[in-house]
Design a protein that fits this description.
It contains 10 helices and 10 strands. The chain is of the alpha/beta class and about 250 residues long. It folds into 2 domains: about 120 residues, 3-Layer(aba) Sandwich (Rossmann fold), CATH 3.40.50.2300; about 120 residues, STAS domain (Transcription Regulator spoIIAA), CATH 3.30.750.24. The strands form 2 sheets. Strands 2-1-3-4-5 form a 5-stranded parallel sheet, with helices on both faces. Strands 6-7-8-9-10 form a 5-stranded mixed sheet. The longest helix has 19 residues.
Length: about 250
């Protein structure tokens, strides 16, 4: 059973979300302060943390800093949530490496659970990466019917381009011939216009597949500097992508 830590000072909200997550089959740990949250993240070994932005004493972003500096907690995926729709908070959260960001109201338990499932699955997949599907600059993760390609440096990096030539060979395309393919840009340190031109060329090699892009903190640059959103679906997080794929099935 997956464990989820929820950090929020609003007891009513904490009770509501905890109940829905528990009924969905997860074990829930709660904390009503940043200090308590950091301690329970260390001792409770959660598979995912839900973290409110607006917390007393320690803000959500200060808690996130504490989590990232601790060897025990730095790799636990985090979903941040807030009562405000401030785009600056959303982009700051994505730049800080969170898995997703959710606006509290209107409350939609289905949205929460889909994004929770996506974040936990991504965290689990990262632990199970096959060495044969990882180079110094590229990770490939597989889920039934879905191939996720993550770039660990800029696309203009010569070593990444060399890795791409080796990895994206005929055997690779035979193995993924029935898959939808996701290009994950979240870990890339920056995205320039030249990177986006290279990405467009890479997409040509995947034209036999349904393709998607998860941009994370680079969403603004991608939308401002390219017309990729006219050629493929672009999402800020894996949770948003999973919500989209879920509606496609319905």
């Amino acid at each position: 059973m997956d464990h989820i830590l929820v950090i929020d000072d609003d007891f009513t909200w904490l009770d509501q979300i905890s109940g829905d997550i528990t009924r969905a089959g997860y074990k829930v740990i709660t904390a009503q302060s940043g200090e308590q949250g950091l301690e329970r993240a260390r001792t409770g070994a959660p598979d995912l943390i839900l973290l409110d932005v607006n917390m007393p004493r320690l803000s959500g972003f200060e808690i996130l800093t504490g989590l990232s500096r601790d060897e025990v907690t730095k790799n636990i995926p985090v979903i941040m949530f807030s009562s405000t729709t401030d785009k600056n908070d959303v982009m700051l959260a994505m730049r800080r490496g969170v898995s997703d960001y959710i606006i509290k109201k209107p409350y939609n338990p289905g949205l929460y659970l889909t994004k929770i499932q996506a974040a936990i699955k991504r965290g689990r997949m990262k632990k199970l990466i096959e060495r044969s599907e990882r180079t110094h600059q590229i990770e490939v993760q597989r889920d039934p019917g879905l191939t996720i390609i993550s770039f660990l440096s800029t696309l203009t990096d010569k070593s990444l381009l060399e890795d791409a030539k080796k990895m994206f060979n005929p055997a690779f395309f035979r193995n993924i011939q029935h898959d939808r393919c996701v290009f994950d840009l979240r870990v890339m340190p920056e995205v320039t216009e030249k990177d986006l031109l290279i990405l467009e060329r890479l997409l040509e090699f995947f034209k036999a597949h349904e393709t998607y892009i998860v941009a994370g903190r680079h969403m603004g640059a991608l939308l401002a500097k390219s017309d990729l959103q006219e050629k493929t679906e672009v999402f800020i997080s894996h949770g948003d992508l999973m919500l989209f794929l879920k509606t496609q099935k319905e």
